Amino acid sequence: MLIYLPDARDGLPALVERFGSVSGFIQNHLPGWRVPVGDFRVPKFKIKFGFEASEVLKGQGLVLPFSAKACIEVDEQGTEAAAASAAVLSEMWCKRVEKVDFVADHPFLFVVREDVSGAVLFLGQLLNPSIAA
Question: Which residue has the higher pLDDT, 30 or 49?
Answer without folding.
Answer: 30
